[in-house]
Design brief:
The protein is an alpha+beta fold and 98 residues long. Helix content is 56%, strand content 22%. The protein has a 4-stranded antiparallel β-sheet with strand order 2-1-3-4. A hairpin with a 2-residue loop joins strand 3 and strand 4. The longest helix is centred in the last third of the chain and has 17 residues.
Length: 98
């Protein structure tokens, strides 16, 4: 299974970020805070799951508005938010063609 995952770096608004992330992954806020502070993988989802990719993009955009730096990976390669958006739009196009 191909996975897309992200790491988040931020120094301000960590508590607000933790609350947003908690709604997405359902782990304790303390664990989320530790992952952010240590630069560990914070979010991951199946690269082929359109709904999860959309949720991930929405959450990452919200974190960016709080001042987060987003590091996004597909497999071993760092990718951009634009890559994520393009992937989502491609999957939407495929779904419409069916």
């Amino acid at each position: 299974m191909s996975v897309i995952y992200s790491k988040v770096k931020m120094s301000n608004n960590i508590f607000e970020a933790c609350k947003l992330v908690r709604n997405f992954i359902g782990i304790p806020i303390g664990e989320i805070k530790n992952r952010i502070q240590k630069g560990e993988v914070l979010l991951e989802c199946n690269y082929l799951d359109l709904e999860e990719l959309i949720k991930m993009r929405t959450l990452l955009e919200s974190l960016e508005t709080l001042g987060a730096q987003i590091y996004l990976y597909e497999g071993d390669y760092e990718v951009s938010m634009e890559f994520l958006s393009n992937t989502i739009e491609s999957y939407k196009g495929i779904a419409e063609d069916r």
